[in-house]
Design goal:
By secondary structure, this protein is an alpha+beta fold. It has a single domain, classed as Fumarylacetoacetase-like, C-terminal domain (Fumarylacetoacetate hydrolase, domain 2, Alpha-Beta Complex), CATH 3.90.850.10. Helix content is 14%, strand content 32%. The strands form four sheets. It has a six-stranded mixed β-sheet, covered by helices on one side. A five-stranded mixed β-sheet has the order 4-15-14-10-11, with no helix packed on it. The longest helix has 9 residues. It is globular, with a radius of gyration of 16 Å. The two termini are 29 Å apart.
Length: 217
Amino acid sequence: TTLIKRSTLLLSCLPIREILLLTNSPKPDAPVIFFKPTSTLLDAESPSPTIRVPRVFGGRINFEAELGVIIGRRAANVSPDQAMSYVSGYCLALDMTGMDFILNARPKGLPWCLGKGFDTSTPVSRFITREELPNPNDVRVWCDVNGVRKQDDSTAELIFPIAELISYTSRFMTLEENDLLLTGTPAGAGPVQAGDVIECGLGMDLVRMRCTVANEG
């Protein structure tokens, strides 16, 4: 079965530790949380899933492969010790980004939503049960572009573990059933353009998805 019946919001957080090392950045005190609208969802299990690049981005967007965490019941002010009991399952996701927009917005303190919230910018895999992924805190996330490996690392390297992400977010807003939390991306994220093919996966063969990139019609 495919992933989402009706997700009410999408959240994304910081990348893994390696990116901090590569950029010589200090560990942040807290996760960075932002919204993506549900209109960004693209069912990667559908025939020929296609990521559409908005014209305003000049034909180029960036890919970021991530583990997605799906909330199973209402969560408000939950502790890290309790947080994983609110998870119903997982998915593989791509967080596609208009990076030029983000690079312009970030130093000005402007919201990221227009760079993150375009249609088809969140391809998602089928639903992965908790039984299929008993240890989400140590699963390999990889991504190829046109057959070349670009990302390959473990969620063990996330700056903030999944339980901390859920707990932190639930202190500010109530998480509802089917909400999707994206957890962060490995090093190697980069640009793609029309004609490129993105293939990514979790673990060895737990789940894979393949999407093509095309310009907006």
